[in-house]
Each structure stands twice: as C-alpha cells, then as structure tokens.
C-alpha cells in the first residue's frame, strides 16, 4: 500500500467511534497519511468516562478523534465529562458526527465535523486532526 505522507510529523491518534466500519475507514485513512491509530468503541465500555480516560492515558495520543452518536444529548454529555477530567483537560479533541444539523438542534452550535462518507469529509477531518496535532508536544 502506498502511503501518502502528511506535511507534519507522524501523529498518534485515538479514534473513539461506535461503528466498526467507520473505525476501519478512519484508521486506514489516517495510516495512509502516515499516522498511527489506536481505536475503541465507547459503547463497549460499561464505565465509559473512566474507561475512556484509561484508554487515552494508555495510548498517549497527540489527538483524540471522538464521534458523537445518537442519542446526541447523552453522547454530548459524556464528551463533556471526558473533556472535564483533569488528566484530559489539555488533550486535543476533534469531534465528529454523522448528522451535524441534528446534533446542533440538540446541543447548539459545535465545531463537530460531519462524516457522511464523502471524500471531502475525510480531507476536512485530516486537516482538522493535523491542525490539532500541531499544538501537541513533539515525541
């Protein structure tokens, strides 16, 4: 497989998503651009806020790519709890969703990136992740 190198350094990413298909797609996309991925499904974590913190701490990513699935209100609340965890407050997050319009109807305006399976969605996500990764400390 031919690797497309990103302009910046190789990033360590943690992808948190509840779709195995989307996890595979995103991980392959980021790997093609020279980045390393650790992945997990939040729905399989009974104590999500604790287990997500432990997973992130174990993998020490430069950026967390976190998907907000339906139901949007409780998923957004979980994201708020995770980001408020003292050990994760400086952690860069890039938030994704499958339906930004519906998410924003529930939680208000967000910077979430909609992933609807279009190539432009992936390019926009890569750009956001690499921008977030530039603020992360070098290896």
Notes on the structure:
The protein is α/β, with parallel strands linked by helices. The chain has a single domain (12-116), classed as Response regulator (Rossmann fold, 3-Layer(aba) Sandwich). The protein contains 5 helices and 5 strands. The protein has helices at 20-32, 48-59, 72-84, 100-107, 119-134, and strands at residues 12-16, 36-40, 63-67, 93-97, 113-114. Strands 2-1-3-4-5 form a 5-stranded parallel sheet, sandwiched between helices. Helix 2 crosses helix 3. The model has no long low-confidence stretch (mean pLDDT 89).
CATH level 4 superfamily: Response regulator
Q: Tally the helices.
A: 5
Mean pLDDT score: 89
Structural class: alpha/beta
Task: Give the SSE string.
Answer: EHEHEHEHEH
CATH-defined architecture:
3-Layer(aba) Sandwich
Distance between the termini: 26 Å
Strand order of the largest sheet: 2-1-3-4-5
What global shape is seen? globular
How would you summarize what this structure contains?
The chain contains five helices and five strands; from the N terminus they run E-H-E-H-E-H-E-H-E-H.
Task: Chart the SSEs and their pairings.
Layout: E1 12-16, H1 20-32, E2 36-40, H2 48-59, E3 63-67, H3 72-84, E4 93-97, H4 100-107, E5 113-114, H5 119-134
Parallel strand pairs: 1-2, 1-3, 3-4, 4-5
Helix pairs in contact: 2-3
Key structural traits:
139 residues, 5 helices, Rossmann fold, five-stranded parallel β-sheet, alpha/beta, globular
């Amino acid at each position: 497989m031919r690797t497309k190198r990103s302009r910046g350094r190789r990033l360590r990413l943690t992808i948190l998503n509840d779709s195995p298909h989307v996890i595979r797609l995103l991980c392959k996309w980021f790997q093609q651009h020279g980045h390393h991925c650790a992945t997990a499904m939040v729905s399989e974590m009974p104590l999500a806020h604790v287990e997500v913190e432990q997973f992130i701490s174990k993998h020490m990513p430069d950026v967390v790519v976190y998907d907000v699935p339906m139901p949007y209100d409780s998923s957004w609340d979980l994201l708020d709890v995770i980001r408020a965890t003292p050990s994760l407050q400086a952690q860069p997050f890039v938030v994704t969703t499958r339906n930004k319009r519906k998410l924003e109807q529930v939680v208000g305006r967000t910077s979430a990136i909609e992933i609807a399976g279009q190539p432009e969605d992936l390019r926009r996500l890569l750009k956001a992740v690499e921008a977030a990764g530039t603020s992360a400390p070098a290896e």
